[in-house]
């Protein structure tokens, strides 16, 4: 039996117990019950990786990791191809911890502000990200880069990031999931797909030093 802390992007915390019989799917149900949220509205990350909760594979906790990070998906229909309408919707019904704004001269470019998740070295900071959507959106993914300097394994030296294949049930690129994935990136770095090799090595083998440097850069560049 192992006790884990469930932490949402909004900072909500709950405790759950897992054992040898816990599967990815049953873990999702346990987390959903703990935070009083529909299971199909959740994405869960643990030890730097998102858990595939669609199967019954055994969940194997890491002795050194005691926190599950959770992002709540936005509920609703598929994302629209018309980004101006999506922008208005995001501005009127924002995801907690995210604000968006349009480019003055390009509807395909969004400027996003991310609030550093609680419990991470980015907490208390606001990070500017530029998203560029392709002309065939929503069939193709946007590209993105951090405009605010940040010490993070998955952010390159010029701010480049790799956005995963976030899709809705119809196979289209989901705006809400792309935005939630940006917060998930801050909450759960993944050293195995690093764009900053030095930071990834520090994250893997010198976690305290990584947290200290990441927090220092947050204070320097993302606060005030």
| CATH architecture designation of the largest domain | Roll
Structural class: alpha+beta
Q: Please name the fourth-level CATH homologous superfamily of the largest domain.
A: Ubiquitin Conjugating Enzyme
**In percent terms, what proportion of residues is strand?**
15-25%
- Quaternary structure annotation: single chain
The main β sheet shows up as: 5 strands, mixed
Number of individual domains: 2
* Helix-strand pattern: EEHEEEHEEEEEHHH
Mean pLDDT: 84
CATH topology of the largest domain: Ubiquitin Conjugating Enzyme
- Terminal residue distance: 43 Å
Helix residue percentage = 25-40%
Coarse morphology: globular
Q: CATH class of the largest domain, please?
A: Alpha Beta
**Sheet with most strands: strand arrangement:** 2-1-5-3-4
Q: Count of helices?
A: 5
Q: Any idea what the radius of gyration is? A: 17 Å
Number of strands: 10
**Unreliably modeled segments:** 74-81, 168-173
């Amino acid at each position: 039996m192992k006790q884990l802390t469930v932490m949402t992007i909004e900072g909500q915390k709950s405790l759950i117990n897992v054992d040898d019989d816990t599967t990815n799917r049953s873990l999702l149900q346990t987390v959903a019950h703990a935070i009083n949220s529909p299971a199909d509205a959740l994405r869960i990350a643990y030890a730097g990786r998102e858990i595939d909760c669609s199967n019954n594979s055994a969940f194997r906790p890491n002795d050194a990791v005691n926190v599950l990070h959770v992002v709540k998906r936005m509920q609703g229909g598929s994302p629209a191809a018309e980004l101006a309408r999506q922008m208005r919707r995001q501005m009127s019904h924002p995801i907690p911890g995210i604000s968006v704004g349009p480019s003055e001269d390009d509807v395909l470019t969004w400027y996003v502000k991310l609030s550093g998740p609680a419990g991470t070295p980015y907490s208390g900071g606001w990070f500017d990200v530029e998203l560029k959507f392709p002309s065939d959106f929503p069939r193709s993914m946007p590209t993105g880069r951090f405009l605010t300097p940040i010490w993070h394994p998955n952010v390159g030296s010029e701010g480049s990031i790799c956005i995963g294949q976030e899709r809705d049930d119809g196979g289209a690129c989901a705006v809400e999931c792309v935005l939630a994935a940006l917060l998930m990136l801050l909450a759960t770095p993944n050293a195995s797909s690093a764009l900053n090799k030095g930071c990834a090595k520090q994250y893997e083998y010198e976690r305290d030093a990584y947290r200290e440097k990441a927090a220092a850069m947050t204070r320097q560049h993302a606060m005030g």
